[in-house]
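Structure (tokenized):
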């Protein structure tokens, strides 16, 4: 097999020619499961590509040729669960008969329920290109989570023209080895989020460059599983006036979808929900009453463990809260993880259910093993600023 691939690729040992096709973005990983992953990348000119992969160290076990385009999307199927795979990306070397290796990396697939342990990282509101964003990203790159959750506002104005500076460059190392699961924030809908001029904005600036699981309505809402957990990523922007965001009021399509798959997740040990606008927060943005009234009863009914939020540029952890009151027995913990790089917010009011509020740049790392969850939150200096442990 290796000889066949080598013959097919005619790999050059020398560096690429001056006018060879070159990577402009990526590769970056998205939409992983236990047996597949989507790899995406951009080249500087429309060009074919060849993607080889396999269980490490056999990086050329399989070869996938890709047609000539600038924006490449490669779905790798037939992967082994809980296995480190390596991959190589080859591009044409102009003025020659061969190709060159443009990138080599690795990733590890998700686990099934027979191995109930995993780790993930979460952060949000990062789209800024600020010095603080890059400092925080450098600390994040030191970790090796199984995947990353982003709570929304990936870009400052949602425009793909800003995506390299505000997303793909600061997280390049993580993106090449770790799948990111993105929630849509209000800024990801563009400046015209609340009026008719925003029509088609996501189809131009987001959808062509990102892949999410086909378990809901891409790119708005979906769920994914890893080990003994299910994650629900919602689009709650309609509650705040986003004209082209899907409705999430009771009776809506997204609401019915959410209730259906929350009910089907009764066999999961852990249930997490990811939203952009927070249900509970003492930061700059007031809570949206309609959102709280629509979603909290569902989260309580189906025993959601944690709600990960963004929008407010700060870190906040609540006590277990139910209907506006601290309730250790049946309440839900809400985490605002909005300090990814934008200007920070101060606390605007005091609430008994607020356990900790910090106006700092931060990210959170979660480690789950069977019925135990441990979270550590770090600032841009790599210092631990908060912890949480849940034992079920």
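Design, position by position:
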């Amino acid at each position: 097999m290796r000889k066949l691939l080598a013959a097919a690729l005619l790999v050059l040992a020398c560096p690429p020619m001056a006018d060879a096709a070159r990577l402009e973005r990526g590769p970056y990983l998205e939409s992983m499961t236990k047996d597949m992953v989507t790899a995406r990348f951009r080249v500087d000119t429309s060009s074919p590509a060849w993607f080889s992969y396999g269980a490490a160290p056999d990086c050329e076990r399989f070869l996938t040729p890709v047609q000539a385009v600038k924006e490449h999307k490669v779905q790798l199927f037939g992967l082994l669960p809980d296995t480190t795979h390596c991959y190589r990306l080859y591009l044409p070397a102009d003025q020659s008969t061969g190709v060159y290796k443009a990138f080599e990396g690795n990733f590890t697939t998700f686990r099934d329920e027979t191995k109930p342990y995993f780790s993930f990282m979460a952060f949000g509101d990062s789209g800024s290109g600020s010095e603080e964003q890059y400092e925080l990203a450098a600390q994040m790159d030191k970790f090796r989570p199984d995947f990353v959750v982003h709570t929304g506002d990936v870009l400052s104005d949602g425009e793909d023209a800003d995506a390299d500076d505000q997303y793909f460059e600061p997280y390049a190392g993580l993106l090449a080895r770790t799948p990111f699961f993105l929630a849509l924030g209000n800024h990801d809908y563009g400046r015209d989020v609340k009026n008719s001029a925003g029509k088609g904005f996501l189809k131009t600036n987001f959808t062509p460059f990102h892949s999410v699981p086909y378990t809901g309505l891409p790119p708005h809402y979906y769920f994914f599983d890893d080990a003994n957990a299910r994650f629900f990523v919602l689009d709650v922007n309609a509650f705040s006036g986003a004209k082209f965001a899907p409705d999430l009021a009771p009776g809506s399509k997204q609401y019915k979808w959410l209730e259906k798959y929350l009910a089907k997740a009764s066999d999961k040990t852990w249930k997490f929900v990811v939203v952009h606008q927070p249900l509970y927060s003492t930061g700059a943005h007031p809570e949206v009453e309609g959102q709280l009234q629509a979603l909290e009863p569902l989260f309580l009914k189906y025993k959601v463990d944690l709600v990960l939020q963004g929008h407010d540029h700060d870190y906040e952890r609540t006590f277990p809260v139910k209907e506006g009151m601290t309730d250790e027995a049946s309440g839900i913990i809400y985490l605002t993880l909005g300090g990814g790089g934008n200007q920070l917010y101060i606390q605007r009011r005091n609430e008994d259910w607020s356990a900790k509020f910090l106006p700092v740049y931060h990210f959170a790392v979660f480690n789950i093993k069977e019925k135990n969850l441990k979270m550590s939150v770090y600032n841009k200096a790599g210092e631990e600023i908060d912890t949480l442990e849940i034992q079920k």
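Reviewer-requested clarification: The longest helix spans residues 289-301. The chain has two domains: 2-108, 117-391.
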